[in-house]
Amino acid sequence: MIEVIIGPRATYNGVLRSDTSIRVDGIMESGMLETPANVILTETADVRCEIRARNVSIRGRFDGVIRADRAELLAGSHVSGALYVNSFYLDDGAVLDGELHMQGPEQTPAQTPPLRGPQPPIPVISRGKIED
User: Fold this and answer.
1) How many folded domains does the chain comprise?
2) What is the pLDDT of residue 48?
3) Is the dihedral angle over the CA atoms 45, 49, 53, 57 positive or is it negative?
């Protein structure tokens, strides 16, 4: 179930962590998306950040680093950067301009070194209220 959505007319900067799937229809200019679930970038998405997730599915534009168990670049996607994954799918009409690092069982994407130091916790807004 997708509970976190960055809408098509929204622009976001920063770190977004969720325990559920994240869908991006809009723009993310910098930062990180992190979830133990799925990240979905739709055809209207334009994302420049780091993504850490179980599965990443892209139809839009992405520039950055992906650390995931599986990445899918679907028709119409344009991806630049580095991908650290265990499983990879490239659809007809998808573009990858960057590095693909297939991880073995001895080194999962979660074990690859982070690009940045630890991030401070961010408040989570759920149903209009800030949670600790």
Assistant:
1) 1
2) 98
3) positive
Give the residue among 59, 56, 96, 104 at the shortest CA–CA distance from 79: 96
pLDDT given at position 1: 77
Integer Rg of the chain from CA: 14
| Domain limits for position 118 | 2-131
CB atoms under 10 Å from CB of 85, counted, come to 21
> Bridge-partner residues for 57, per DSSP?
40, 72
Q: Which of these, 48, 45, 116, 54, lies nearest to 85 by C-alpha position? A: 54
pTM of the model: 0.79
- 125 residue type, one letter: I
Q: Is 111 helix (H, G, I), strand (E, B) or coil?
A: helix
The token pair at 53 is: 């997730």
3-state secondary structure of 110: helix
Strand duo 46-58 + 2-6: pairing: unpaired
